[in-house]
Amino acid sequence: MTIRCLMILALLIAMCDAKPPHSSNNHVAAANVFTDRYAHSRFAGWKVRASARGRDCDVLLVETDMVMEDSMVEAMHYGAGAYGVVDGGVQRFYRDRSFRGVAYKDSSGRIWAYGNVTAQDAATLPRCD
Fold first, then answer.
1. If residue 111 lies in a helix (H) or strand (E), which one and from where to where?
2. What is the DSSP string of 43-109?
3. What is the pLDDT of residues 1-56, one digit of tens each?
4. What is the DSSP secondary structure assignment for residue 68, as one 8-state letter?
5. What is residue 93's predicted lDDT score, i.e. its pLDDT?
6. In angstroms, what CA-CA distances link 116 with 31, 58, 101, 122?
7. Backbone φ and ψ of 116, nearest 5°
8. 19-37: b or e for each residue (b if 16 or more CB lie within 10 Å)?
9. Are 23 and 56 in contact (CB under 8 A)?
10. Is the sign of the CA dihedral 38, 39, 41, 44 positive or negative?
11. pTM (whole model) above 0.85
12. Each residue's pLDDT tens digit, 50-74
């Protein structure tokens, strides 16, 4: 019975050391899905790409090679009209995938931020890979 107890104990220790799948992997995958959707949309020429950013990979950064205006960013964010590439807009996309915020960066370097992230934070958050 001692060997059996030791085996059970070893199994329990191994289970405690095992790490569950981290949400950062989910955020990186979600950013890749987002990029793919835009690459196969009417906005393919804009070269819209997303990446997960931050220590916990919980900020979605959307970048484009276009110079954006406030109205264009808002239309993408809320999914208005032709800008509704993702159902419910980017707002719904980032919330459904448990990002704490989303930031948009255009080719001029200007940044718009929504949710629980500031433009200043978004500019300095490290990329998750």
1. strand 111-115
2. TGGGT-EEEEESTTS-EEEEE-SSPP-HHHHHHHHHT-GGG--STTHHHHHHHHTT-SEEEEE-TT-
3. 566 644 454 444 544 443 334 567 899 999 999 999 999 999 999 999 999 999 99
4. P
5. 96
6. 17, 10, 5, 10
7. -95, 60
8. eeeebbeebbebbeebbee
9. yes
10. positive
11. no
12. 999 999 999 999 999 999 999 999 9
**Cα–Cα distance, 47 to 103 (Å, whole number):** 16
Token pair of 13 as six digits: 């220790």
CA distance 40 to 7: 53
**In contact, 103 and 59? CB cutoff 8 Å:** yes
The DSSP-derived string for 4-52 is HHHHHHHHHHHHHHPPPPPHHHHHHHHHHHHHHHHHTSTTGGGT-EEEE
Q: CA 41, CA 53: separation in Å to the nearest integer?
A: 24
Angle between the N-to-C axes of helices 89-96 and 23-39, in degrees from 0 to 180, rounded to the nearest 10: 150
Q: What's the alpha-carbon Rg for the chain, to the nearest Å?
A: 20
Here the tokens at position 107 are 């080719």
Residue located via tokens 């239309």: 75
CA 53 to chain centre: 7
